């Protein structure tokens, strides 16, 4: 035992002894504080561990439940059960570990603090008390006068007694100090060693437990690798099957009702026909309920849910007949009549009603042909079955849809017959802003690039607008690959092949379109030469006005009718001068008049009605030729064209030949290839030419007169409302130049027809001044349509008003799209 405080020094009560005692007391105080903190932390750890064990137990129970639910899959069920048992054992080991921590740390150290340290503090109190008494006795003994013998003797006796008591208590205190100093080492090491042994046992048991599970885990790891491969293959097969079914469904000539057909023919299970029908109940209310009907085993049955037992409507089809029902309010109804009752049913379409009637009749005939010994199972002939093909085709070829036409036209472009990126044959997808065709796998990668890089659309499943379809035909895989793969071989880029890993194809596509790693870098000199070459193609820079609208003729008293046509050379289709004849205008404005009257009843405001009447009156006396005043024509021309004669070198003062400049002049020259190249070089589609009245490429495309060029810029995120220095947007310029097709396109893309320029003129006021009947009509209809939509949103009135607005909006959109088609069909 190591003596911390010397007993001899204790008897002397020397300053060395007092210093040693004081040091021990400070040390024991800190020890008590640290032990209290450690015990509290241990209690917190044990509580948290028990909470963890409870949560872990619940988690293991969840795994067991999942294993029971997956009993049909032997691999998953058995594996999860084994994992659950192992985790439960580990949870038990955790419980043992925390119990040992409770005994070794919390109990032992807490006992040491509460017992040993408490005895030390009690001894200290006694030592302090006797020390104080000793000091008092010494002082009193020293102060007694010499001549007072009685007091001297009394003081001497008290001092002697106090010294004996002090020595006894001081020796006991020193003994307590030395014992505590020795025991503290024992208790701390004992408790901590016990806790560490518990941790060792816990991890050793866990290691042994998982060592036994390791062969199963390795086996499952091997199976998992194979499952990854099989899953990828299954996913690819499912995607191909999904695409095939989608294409097949898109090629079917279904009506709106026919697309909802859900019936099947399963002759192997005795089912001749099945699908949803509405059944009229036999109660007093004659309610209609939708049920799943089937014809099987010479019976007509239905059920509400799959697990329900079928309800028999007709016991024996040989005793019943079927007929049309035209005397009820609902459409597509037919009745199955038996000797005891009749059942009224309703199909979703006329084709489906005919199919059900034919199936019932065929089942009746088949039941009569069967022998009595044979099971009464329907065996419909393939020619009389209500299959999907017989309903739609009826022996006639399936009509082509928009998707099929788009596929044929786009794939007819050289180079489009294979995927632009991997070379897969027969692509069925396209990137509309790039103008390329893609296979299904590359289309998925393009979607992941974001719509700011690539907008993907199906060539078979989606509808295609004429302007978008023509844009696809103007570009194509060869054109785009000459731009985006110009330096591919030079850069060592390997073009992926069909069947290559998706990661490789995705890396190549990102390098090609996002990083544009294979695009040729143009020098300033090359850009300058390209811009100058493009400017020479611009009719405005040649000083020609042949593509500007003609001067206005003398006003005519009425609008041209559809019979007013212009004689065209032989071989060209004759088309009318104006989009709208009087009958069409009456039809269009009748929609607005009806809706305006409805709104006037609700808001006592006839503003829109007056607007509609005023438009018809104005158009009735407006010529259809597109023209502007001479002043407006001069304002529509750029400063460059006005100075062309005096300054043939238009670009002598320009020094920044950025891709934006290239896109600017390529848009004016209507060169889609150069525009695509400019965008590939990083041109800003909304680049502003500060030297040309802040015009943008889209405004230049309007000047060029090409509708497809405008569509290309809009598909690549051009701002349809960006204005020049005079506050005129693309819609203003298209109206001033009389480009009706572009006006339709901008209205279709949501251009603001109420925007005004610095002269406070809107596109509508410009069209009225130019006496362009078509554009005035379109802008009037667009304005009314917008006002009706806002009014409907304000009043929130459903019913006839919403229905009328829907009809009006459909008619308006139809006019817009038809005129765009007419513009694209022009030679």
Automatic annotation (TrEMBL):
ANK repeats lie at residues 693-725, 726-758. Residues 621-645, 797-808 have a biased composition (Polar residues). Keywords: ANK repeat, Cell membrane, Coiled coil, Endosome, GTPase activation, Membrane, Metal-binding, Repeat, Zinc, Zinc-finger. Residues 404-526 form the Arf-GAP domain. GAP activity stimulated by phosphatidylinositol 4,5-bisphosphate (PIP2) and phosphatidic acid. Its main location: membrane. Residues 544-575, 603-645, 789-808 are annotated as: Disordered. Gene3D superfamilies: Ankyrin repeat-containing domain (1.25.40.20), Arf GTPase activating protein (1.10.220.150), Arfaptin homology (AH) domain/BAR domain (1.20.1270.60), Pleckstrin-homology domain (PH domain)/Phosphotyrosine-binding domain (PTB) (2.30.29.30). It holds the Pfam family PH. GO terms for molecular function: GTPase activator activity; zinc ion binding. InterPro entries: ACAP1/2/3-like (IPR045258), AH/BAR_dom_sf (IPR027267), Ankyrin_rpt (IPR002110), Ankyrin_rpt-contain_sf (IPR036770), ARFGAP/RecO (IPR037278), ArfGAP_dom (IPR001164), ArfGAP_dom_sf (IPR038508), BAR_dom (IPR004148). The keyword Cell membrane applies. The BAR domain mediates homodimerization, it can neither bind membrane nor impart curvature, but instead requires the neighboring PH domain to achieve these functions. This is Arf-GAP with coiled-coil, ANK repeat and PH domain-containing protein. It comes from Chanos chanos. The gene is acap2a.
């Amino acid at each position: 035992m190591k003596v911390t405080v010397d007993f001899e020094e204790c008897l002397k009560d020397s300053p060395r002894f007092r210093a040693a005692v004081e040091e021990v007391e400070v040390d024991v105080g800190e020890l008590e504080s640290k032990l209290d903190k450690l015990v509290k932390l241990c209690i917190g750890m044990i509580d948290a561990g028990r909470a963890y064990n409870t949560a872990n137990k619940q988690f293991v129970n969840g795994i067991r439940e999942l294993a029971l639910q997956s009993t049909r899959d032997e691999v998953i069920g058995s594996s999860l059960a084994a994992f659950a048992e192992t985790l439960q054992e580990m949870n038990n080991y955790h419980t043992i570990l925390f119990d040992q921590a409770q005994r070794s740390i919390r109990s032992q150290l807490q006992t040491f603090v509460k017992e040993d340290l408490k005895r030390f503090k009690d001894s200290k109190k006694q030592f302090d008390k006797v020390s104080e008494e000793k000091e008092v006795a010494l002082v009193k003994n020293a102060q007694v006068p010499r001549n007072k013998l009685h007091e001297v003797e009394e003081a001497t006796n008290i001092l002697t007694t106090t010294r004996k008591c002090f020595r006894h208590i001081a020796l006991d205190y020193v003994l307590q100090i030395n014992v505590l100093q020795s025991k503290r080492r024992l208790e701390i090491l004992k408790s901590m060693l016990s806790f560490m042994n518990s941790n060792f046992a816990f991890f050793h048991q866990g290691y042994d437990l998982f060592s036994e599970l390791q062969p199963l885990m390795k086996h499952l790891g091997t199976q998992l690798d194979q499952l990854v491969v099989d899953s990828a293959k299954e996913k690819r097969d499912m995607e191909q099957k999904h695409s095939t079914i989608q294409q097949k469904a898109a090629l079917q000539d279904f009506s709106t009702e026919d697309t909802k057909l859900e019936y099947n023919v399963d002759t192997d299970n005795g089912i001749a026909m099945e699908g949803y029908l509405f059944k009229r109940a036999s109660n007093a209310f004659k309610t209609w309920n939708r049920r799943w009907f089937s014809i099987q085993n010479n019976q007509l049955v239905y059920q509400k849910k799959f697990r329900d037992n079928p309800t028999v409507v007709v016991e024996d089809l040989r005793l019943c007949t079927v007929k049309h029902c035209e005397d009820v309010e609902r459409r597509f109804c037919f009745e199955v009549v038996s000797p005891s009752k009749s059942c009224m049913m309703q199909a979703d379409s006329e084709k489906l009603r005919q199919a059900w009637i034919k199936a019932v009749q065929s089942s009746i005939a088949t039941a009569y042909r069967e022998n009595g010994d044979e099971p009464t199972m329907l065996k419909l002939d393939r020619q009389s079955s209500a299959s999907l093909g017989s309903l739609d085709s009826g022996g006639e070829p399936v009509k082509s849809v928009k998707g099929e036409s788009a596929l044929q036209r786009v794939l007819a472009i050289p180079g489009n017959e294979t995927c632009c990126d991997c070379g897969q044959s027969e692509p069925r997808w396209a990137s509309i802003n790039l103008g390329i065709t893609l296979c299904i796998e590359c289309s998925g990668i393009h979607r992941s690039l974001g719509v700011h890089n690539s907008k993907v659309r199906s060539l078979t499943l989606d509808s295609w607008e004429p302007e978008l379809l023509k844009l696809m035909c103007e570009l194509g895989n060869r054109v785009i690959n000459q731009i985006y793969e110009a330096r591919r071989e030079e850069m060592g880029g390997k073009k992926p092949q069909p069947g290559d890993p998706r990661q490789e194809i995705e890396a190549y596509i990102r390098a090609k379109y996002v990083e544009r790693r294979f695009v040729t870098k143009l020098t300033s000199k090359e850009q300058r030469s390209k811009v100058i070459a493009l400017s020479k193609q611009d009719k405005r820079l040649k000083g020609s006005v042949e593509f500007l609208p003609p001067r206005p003729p003398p006003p005519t008293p009425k609008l041209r009718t559809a019979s007013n046509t212009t004689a065209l050379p032989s071989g060209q289709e004759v088309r009318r001068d104006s989009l709208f004849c009087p009958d069409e205008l009456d039809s269009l404005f009748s929609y607005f008049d009806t809706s305006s009257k409805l709104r006037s009843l609700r808001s006592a405001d006839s503003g829109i009605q007056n607007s509609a009447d005023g438009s018809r009156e104005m158009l009735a006396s407006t010529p259809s030729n597109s023209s502007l005043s001479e002043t407006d024509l001069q304002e529509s021309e750029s400063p460059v064209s006005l100075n062309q004669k005096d300054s043939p070198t238009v670009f002598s003062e320009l020094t920044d030949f950025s891709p934006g400049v290239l896109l600017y002049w390529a848009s004016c020259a209507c060169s889609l290839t150069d525009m695509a190249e400019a965008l590939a070089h990083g041109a800003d589609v909304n680049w502003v030419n500060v030297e040309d009245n802040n015009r943008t490429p889209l405004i230049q495309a309007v000047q060029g007169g090409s509708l497809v060029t405008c569509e290309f810029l809009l598909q690549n995120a051009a701002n349809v409302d960006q204005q020049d220095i005079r506050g005129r947007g693309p819609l203003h310029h298209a109206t001033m130049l009389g480009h009706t097709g572009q006006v339709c396109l901008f209205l279709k893309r949501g251009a603001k027809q109420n925007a005004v320029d610095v002269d406070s003129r809107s596109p509508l006021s410009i069209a009225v001044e130019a006496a362009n009947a078509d554009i005035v009509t379109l802008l009037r209809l667009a304005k009314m349509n917008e006002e009706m939509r806002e009014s409907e949103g304000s009043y929130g009135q459903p019913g006839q008003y919403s229905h009328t607005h829907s009809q009006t909006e459909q008619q308006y959109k139809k006019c817009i799209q038809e005129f765009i088609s007419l513009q694209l069909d022009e030679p």
